[in-house]
Amino acid sequence: MSDQPRPSRTAAVIPAAGRGVRLGPGAPKALRALGGTPMLVHAVRAMAASRQVSLVVIVAPPDGAPEVRNLLDEHALPERTEFLVVPGGGTRQESVKLGLDALPADIRAVLVHDAARPLVPVDTVDAVVEAVRDGAPAVVPALPLADTVKEVEPGAPGEPEPVLSTPVRSRLRAVQTPQGFDRDTLVRAHERVAVSGEGATDDAGLVEQLGVPVVVVPGHEEAFKVTRPLDLVLAEAVLARRRANDGF
Q1: Using one digit for the tens of pLDDT, what is the confidence trace for 189-221?
Q2: Which GO terms fall under molecular function for this chain's record (predicted)?
């Protein structure tokens, strides 16, 4: 038996325990159909499409792990990739932590990906992984903003809100996923940074609170988040175009 250490691997964690109420009533957001296939399956395939990702951990609703396992078994997934389903927690932050706890010891780089970003291209996934492997402790894909942004004093829904400032748009980026991390850095962030309420919506934000630098790589317009009904219409159009052009 060789005494050589096993090479380090990269895993993706997909928290899929949220209900996604803004998308309307029905199944949890990650299980909504896109082109006849649940968005979660599209997201899992997007991570597994990268040859640099050898394990995908899906964090299911707390009582929904068997359902998610059955769902994955019903759809074709790459044989070269391992898949693991674990039950999640009450918040996204708790679910990501549970996904991290399930990783084997030889995983050194971790991607965290939103199940609601089902169409992220493999080139974006690879760019994030490569940046982490090149030494960046935290990496996020992002796009420049097209719209001017205003900081406001939040008010009651539907009421006018006073503008406090107008940030310089050229310095702003709309952040996407997968976000990539050195495993030890992300684990430390989840252990040390306490977030109240619904918890953290952005893992890079937790890392920032440790004082660890976060870098941005170019995102992609098709890595948008399916949050509202109109997003689902756009996602259907993108998927139809892919299938027509290259048999995606």
Answers
A1: 999 987 655 556 789 999 999 999 999 999 999
A2: 2-C-methyl-D-erythritol 4-phosphate cytidylyltransferase activity
- Report the Cα 163 to chain-centroid distance in Å: 31
Q: How does 228-244 read in b/e, with b if 16+ C-beta sit within 10 Å?
A: eeeebeebeebbeeeee
Q: Which residue has the tokens 């998927």?
A: 239
Round to whole Å and give the CA distance between 203 and 44: 19
Are 117 and 43 in contact, with CB atoms under 8 Å apart?
A: yes
What are the CA-CA distances from residue 22 to residues 8, 38, 61, 210, 226 (Å)? Answer: 39, 17, 18, 32, 10
Rg (CA), the chain: 18
- Report if pTM > 0.85: yes
Q: Which residues of the chain have pLDDT under 70?
A: 1-7, 18-27, 195-200, 247-248
Please state the domain extents for the chain. 9-141+174-247
CA-closest candidate to residue 45, choices 110, 129, 108, 120 = 120
Residue 187: in which H helix or E strand, if any? helix 183-192
| Token reading at 86 | 């674990």
> What is the identity of the amino acid at 93?
Q
Structure-token match 């790459």, residue found = 78
What are 32-61's pLDDT values in tens digits? 899 999 999 999 999 999 999 999 999 999
Kindly give, in sequence order, each residue whose CB lies less than 8 Å from that of residue 228, ignoring residues fewer than 6 positions away: 22, 23
Whether omega for the bond prior to residue 104 falls within 30 degrees of 0, making it cis, is no
d(CA 133, CA 202): 21
Average pLDDT over all residues of the chain: 91
